[in-house]
Amino acid sequence: MKILISNDDGVFAPGILAAKQAVEDLADVTVVAPDENNSSVGRRLTLFRHLKIEECELEDGSMAYSVSGSPADSVVAGAKYVMDEKPDLVITGINQGLNISCDVTSSGTVCAAFEAVSLGIPAIAVSLFLDPETSYKQDENGEWYIDYDFTLTKKILRDLVLRIIDRGFPEGVDLFNLNVPSNYESEEVNITALSPKMLDKKVIDNTDEEKKEIFDYPLDENQDSSGLIMITPDLIQNYEKGSDGYALFVDKCPSLTPLNVNMTSFSLLDW
């Protein structure tokens, strides 16, 4: 079996190495990913423009490829240029943060998996939901850091790939969207549906006192902020039972959502 692994956090992000380690003894694995963070870029493709592709070395000493483009670009380059043969499976992730609800269409991680499906390759998008109360820690010097514990995510990803090797993909399923909470109370995977949305979005400007610190953070010193706006998201907290959000926030267990990229609605009968 040949597996292509990509992500949207960048080729040197810890999650992509964790994904590779989870399945590298099950298949021939090739890693091709963006050369920098490309979160929330959706399925952006770079057409009729040059992309730079370079060999690089991951933390474990293994070879990978960086692409000066988007996650979807990386999947296309990996499947159509880097690899000698078409991969049997594409894995995107492990993303640092959750990817749930119908908002997955803005996710570079999930949309890279969509791109794989468009190439005729089944895919798994994998994300680790980092709970702020347990994942953000301080070292002995008081410096904050993120504790990336990929242990359970790697185990579930490996088990899922083993099942796919044994049984193939279920009929009618193009890709799986797997989300694992860092603060899990159960390791049992729930099969879920997409929630309506994950984020409440607000548009602010320099008159917003409540979010002034957030608005000012990216500004250069003495930069004029008149005419500038910023879209800020707040995470939805309430989800219906059976949804991906309910599994993560209420049941605090892994969520596996089977997806089909055909977005046609067949219910338009008597409109």
| Rg (CA only) | 19 Å
Question: Using DSSP, what is the number of strands?
Answer: 13
Low-confidence stretches: none
Tally the helices.
7
Mean pLDDT, nearest integer?
95
Any overview of this molecule?
It is a single chain. The protein is α/β, with parallel strands linked by helices. The protein is 24% helix and 25% strand. It has seven helices and 13 strands. It has helices at residues 14-23, 71-82, 108-118, 132-135, 151-167, 212-216, 244-249, and strands at 2-6, 28-34, 53-57, 63-67, 89-96, 123-129, 136-138, 144-146, 175-181, 190-191, 199-204, 230-235, 255-259. α1 crosses α5 and α2 runs parallel beside α3 (108-118). The longest helix has 17 residues, at 151-167. The N and C termini lie far apart (47 Å).
